[in-house]
Specification:
Blueprint (H helix, E strand, L loop, with lengths): L26 E11 L7 E5 L2 E5 L7 E3 L5 E6 L2 E5 L12 E6 L9 E3 L8 H5 L3 E2 L1 E6 L5 E6 L37 E6 L1 H6 L10 H8 E2 L2 E2 L13 E7 L10 H9 L9
Parallel strand pairs: 11-12
Antiparallel strand pairs: 1-4, 1-5, 1-15, 2-3, 5-6, 7-8, 7-15, 8-9, 10-11, 13-14
C-alpha cells in the first residue's frame, strides 16, 4: 500500500526562523532521466577510500545507458511538483543547471554526484572524478545555520542535526551532524544548495516506479513530508536531473529568482 500524502494541517517551520516562503509564482521545469552504467563500454570501477572499497560510476561519457523512454518531466511551482508531458519541454532551450547522481552499493552510504550531465562530459578529464555530496555552512545568526548541499563544499556533514523529516530519507545518516560534546548543539536553518541536487534527493527516497508519486505528494513549499515507502538506494542506480526555466512563466521563472531559491533567500528548500 502506498503511503498517505502530507497531513492536512500545516506543519510550520520551527519558531524563530525566517518567515520568508517560496513565492507561489516562482517556477521551473525539472526533467528526471534514469541512467545506468554500460559495463560493456567500461568495466566496473572499484576504488578505495581510507581502506574501504567503493563502487564508482563510469568516468567516460560514452559508458552509460540512457533510458529516455522513462524520462519524467515536472513543473515545480511555489514548492509543489506537478507532472507534465515531456512534449512540454523545448529541447533547444539551454538548461538552468543539471546534476548526475548515483547510489553505490546497499551498504555504502555516500551519494556520488557531478553538477552536469555525465553523458555530455568525461567525468575524469573534465571534473577530476566523481564527488561525494558535501556542504557549505552558512550562518544566519540567531535563526541558525543553513547547510548548502553541493559537490565542492568544505564540510562533509550538515551544520546542525538534520530534520527527522528528511534524515535519512533524503540524505543518508553519514552526512548528519556529528555532535561535539564540548560545544552546544547548533540550530539548523534547513537545507539549501545546488538546485538540481535538491530536486534529485527525493528521487532516491523510494523505488524508481514510485518517482511521480513521491515528488507530487511529499515535496511541499519549504519542506519535505516523510513517507514510509521502501528506500530507493539500489546498487548502481543513477539519475540525470536537469532544471529548465519555465517558458509559460517568464516573469516568475528567471535565473535570478532560481538563484535566490538556491541561496535560501526564500527560506530553506527543505526546512529544519
Amino acid at each position: 500500500m502506498l503511503s498517505r500524502g502530507p497531513p492536512s494541517s500545516k506543519t510550520a517551520l520551527a519558531s524563530g526562523f525566517s518567515p520568508r516562503r517560496i513565492p507561489s509564482d516562482v517556477s521551473c521545469l525539472v526533467l528526471y532521466e534514469p541512467l545506468e552504467p554500460n559495463f560493456k563500454k567500461q568495466p566496473t570501477r572499484v576504488g578505495t577510500d581510507g581502506g574501504n572499497r567503493f563502487w564508482a560510476p563510469p568516468n567516460r561519457k560514452n559508458a552509460y545507458l540512457r533510458h529516455r523512454d522513462r524520462a519524467r518531466l515536472f513543473r515545480w511551482q511555489g514548492g509543489r511538483m506537478t507532472q507534465i508531458t515531456t512534449e512540454s519541454l523545448d529541447k533547444e532551450q539551454p538548461p538552468y543547471g543539471a546534476a548526475t547522481i548515483f547510489t553505490q552499493w546497499r551498504d555504502t552510504n555516500h551519494l556520488l554526484a557531478v553538477t552536469f550531465d555525465a553523458e555530455e562530459k568525461n567525468v575524469a578529464e573534465d571534473y577530476g572524478g566523481w564527488k561525494v555530496l558535501s556542504f557549505e555552512h552558512k550562518p544566519l545568526g540567531p535563526q541558525g545555520t543553513y547547510s548548502s548541499v553541493g559537490v565542492a563544499g568544505d564540510q562533509q556533514q550538515l551544520a546542525a542535526p538534520g530534520s527527522r523529516a528528511w534524515t535519512p530519507q533524503l540524505l543518508p545518516t553519514i552526512y548528519d551532524y556529528d555532535p561535539n560534546p564540548n560545544l552546544p548543539q547548533p540550530v539548523s536553518a534547513g537545507l539549501i544548495g545546488d538546485l538540481p541536487l535538491l530536486f534529485a534527493l527525493p528521487a532516491f527516497s523510494a523505488q524508481p516506479h514510485q518517482l511521480s508519486y513521491v515528488l507530487t505528494h511529499f515535496m511541499q513549499p519549504n519542506e519535505w513530508y516523510r513517507h514510509d515507502l521502501p528506500h530507493g538506494h539500489e546498487p548502481h542506480r543513477g539519475m540525470v536531473v536537469t532544471v529548465f526555466l519555465d517558458p509559460s512563466n517568464k516573469n516568475g521563472s528567471t535565473k535570478g529568482l532560481l538563484d535566490q531559491v538556491q541561496d535560501g533567500y526564500f527560506g530553506p528548500f527543505y526546512g529544519p
